[in-house]
Amino acid sequence: MNSRQPSAQQRPRHRVVIVGGGAGGLELATRLGNRWGRRGKVEIELIDQARTHLWKPLLHEVAAGSMDLGVHELNYLAQSYWHNFRFRLGQMIGLDRERREVQVAPVIDDDGNEITPQRRFHYDTLVIAVGSLTNDFGTPGVKEHAIALETAGEATRFHRRLVNALMRAHAQREPLRPEQLQVAIIGAGATGVELAAELHNTTRELVAYGLDRIDPDQDIKLNVIEAAERILPALPERLSEAASKLLQSKGVRVRTSARVAEVLPGGVRLASGEIIPAELVVWAAGVKAPEVLRNLDGLETNRSNQLLVTQTLQTTRDPDIFAIGDCCACPWPEKATTVPPRAQAAHQQANHMVRQLANRLAGKRLRPFRYRDFGSLVSLGEYTTVGNLMGALVGGSLMIEGYIARLMYRSLYKMHELALHGYTKVALDTLARLITRRTEPHVKLH
Ligand SMILES: Cc1cc2nc3c(=O)[nH]c(=O)nc-3n(C[C@H](O)[C@H](O)[C@H](O)COP(=O)(O)OP(=O)(O)OC[C@H]3O[C@@H](n4cnc5c(N)ncnc54)[C@H](O)[C@@H]3O)c2cc1C
Question: Is 333's pLDDT higher than 90?
Answer without folding.
Answer: yes
